[in-house]
Structure formats: structure tokens, C-alpha cells
Design goal:
CATH class of the largest domain: Alpha Beta
Strand content: 15-25%
Helix content: 40-55%
CATH architecture of the largest domain: 3-Layer(aba) Sandwich
Strand order of the largest sheet: 3-2-1-4-5-6-7
Structural class: alpha/beta
Number of helices: 15
CATH topology of the largest domain: Rossmann fold
Amino acid sequence: MSKVAHVVGARPNFVKMAPVIAALGAYPELDQVVVHTGQHYDPALSDKVLVDLGFRTPDHVLGVGSGTHAEQTARALERFEAVLLEEQPSLVVVAGDVNSTLAGALAAAKLGIPVAHVEAGLRSGDWTMPEEINRVLTDRLSDLLFVHSPEAVENLDREGIDLSRVHNVGNTMIDSLFRLRDRAARCRRWLSLGLEEGGYVLVTLHRPSNVDAPDRLVAISDALARLAARERVVFPVHPRTRARLEALGCLDRLVYAGVACLDALPYLEFLSLELGAGAVLTDSGGIQEETSCLGIRCFTFRNNTERPVTITLGTNTLIGTDPNAIDVVTTAPRDATVAIPLWDGAAGSRVAAVIAATLAVGSSAELVQPE
């Protein structure tokens, strides 16, 4: 029996990998092992997300925790290597671009175990982003590269990746979104905050370049306070961001200005607020994708994006990194016409078919070739 080991470690990984793991369950000849590195360990970002997704209980929890990039990556690399030596999988599957992703791919490659990368080929061109380093190196280590849009195929082609290893399967994160959208909509989380559907701006900020420099975070907080003077603003605060805001005294000022500063939310509650928003302001990657599929206006507080399809075919607008740019954020009616090819809720099944065919298990699954 072939065995597949899945590496997850952070909230985005769980959302992207749940559809793949579920789809591979249709192949009884495949044994699956789930390894949770513990990069995200706050309950709202880990345990509660796994419950919302119906994620299977991880077989190994490595408990790498937080730390510098080197510390976190090194702990995940060392501890995952021990799991690989014990489990002896035929394939390791990693997703996204967090430190756990790179550590999982590197540990497998060093032991000669093939690697599959879900969400391969994304490029921002910004080497100051730790995620850019992780995703580029992971792609170089991978034997199967699953991409979610044609420009990702083009990026890999330019870098000399053999396109016979590249498969345009669509976006597995959108599989989770579509599967749980109705449940999240019924939650109507905005009502508990006294808000009207479509009548507020949802904010997420966690990127170190935005929250680690005190002067910059103060300026961003001032801009959010100005935004709250004309729009209702809801801000589920990442634990790391909350610590920085509290240290500067900015959290109390935001609350005084009328910003609803919530604790970090589990997946379903956050998705419910996203569904009810009139606009989203974010520095996240995945939220650019979710808002595009939901037809909700997205303002991305960055100078670049590794997801340009969310601009060309979606609802995303880059506003740069000047805190004053937040002044342009406004709510708008939902756009029901947005549609991105292969972001259809079936990407996980396409990934599973390629993996099964590669490992020669199950029926003769048709490989999904890049467009």
C-alpha cells in the first residue's frame, strides 16, 4: 500500500489541504498520514479551524511553536525528518508558503522522498517577503506542482521547471469556501455586532512589514480610526498583531474610535463576517482569493500580489503600503458576475486524481494538464 504524508502547520494550510485529504480518501489503496507541525497553535488559528473544516485528527503533532524564521523552520525540519523515517511515505504533500511548507519539502527531498506542492508557482517578485523565499525553494524541491491559475504555469516555465510535472488543477482553498459557505452564511456573525449585511469593512493585518515597526503600526492605526469615522469597521486581530497594538497603546485608541476589535476568529465565524462585508481591507494572500470568489470588494494593503488573477478577473485592488491609502476604502454592493476558471470547488479531486495516477493506485485517473 502506498502512503502519503501531508504537512500542515498554519491556518491557510488547513483550508487548502482539507479538500485534498478528503478526496484522497476515495482511494482505499492509499494510506494517509497527517502531520501538524504546530506552527500555528492559538486555538482560533488551529484547533477550532480543524473542527470547522471537519479535518481529520493529525497523526503527528510536532509542536514547533513560534520563534524566528530560522528557529521555526529548523524545528519543523528536524522533527518532520523523524516522522518520515518512522512512516516511510511514498509521497509528501505540502501546501502554500509558510515555514512548515519549506521544512516539509526540504526534509523529504533530503531523504529522496518525492514532494507534491499544492499552490505552486505563485510569485510576487518581492524577496523581502519570507513567503516568496519559501514558495520558490519549495517549487524547486517538488516533483509534482499543483497550480491554481495559468500565470503560475508561466512563472514555473520561466524558471525552467519541467511542465510535465505541472498541473493546473484550480484552487483547493475555494473548495473549502464553497463547501462551508452556506453554513457560514447561516451563522450571520455580523448580527451579534449590531451590523447590517454589506454595511461594514472587514480588516485583517498580520504581515510583519505592517505590524512590527512601531511608527508604521501607529500610522496604520490612525488611518483605521479615520476609516471608522465614516464606515463601520470590524477588525479580528491576529494574536501577534494584538500584542504589538497593546504594547503601543493603539488597541484602546482603535476601540475608542469605534473599531470593533475582536479576538482572532475560527474559520466559520471569519467566513461569516467575510460574507457579510461590504469591503475587505487586508494584507493576506488567501483573502484576496476568497473575496474574488464571493464578489466582495477587496483592498490589499501591499505593493504587490502573487495572485494577479484576483486583480484581472476578481475584485482585488492593490492600494500600496502608505497608511494614507486606507482612506480610499469604501463599501460597495457584491459583484455576482466574478468567475475564475477552475475555481469551482473540485480542485481537491483533481489533485487527488493526479496523485493516485502518479502512485499507480485506484482506477486510471486522468492527469490534469496545464492550460
